Amino acid sequence: MPTKPEDGMASLFANLENMTGKSIDAWVVIGRGTGVAKHKELVALLKSEHGLTHGYAHQIALRSLTADDAPKVGSEELVELQYSGSKAPLKPIYDALKQAALSFGSDVEFSPKKGYVSLRRNKQFAMIQPSTANRLDVGLILKNTTLDDRLELSGSFNTMFSHRIRIGKVTDVDETVIGWLRKAYDSA
After folding, report:
1. Measuring CA to CA, which residue among 72, 83, 85 is closest to residue 112?
2. β partners of residue 167
């Protein structure tokens, strides 16, 4: 069973090649050769004309429509892009949360995505997202945790997480917030 996202992708690509006889790189060439420029349309074409499942077609479309020089998932460049422009003042908050999480153990992994950073151990336990120019949100997976004026249910924020903390300044990253982050880490 894959333990890291990269392992899962490698398995998915191996299965794609076993099923179709073509590597992911070959499929990307096919995807780019269609001339289709929209993700949804390319997914539909790959499904209808090549009989691919949605998951395979989605991954091929992602790679076919992404510029070769675009930052890759997991790249620190994605973090820099998240905290550029009007969101630059939020970077010290991110740095404080990252420093706190790294103190939990050597098994903490940071996996930057386009709009947020996933925090993982054996599984994902938190995410850090610059939501507005004035606020960063921390999503947590917590069980049996009492809500208060800062810790709220995630609601429509992100259904993968049970709770959310809204943070507007670096001093908000205090013992209480670090404690909730630690609790999510411990249960992962």
Report:
1. 72
2. 136
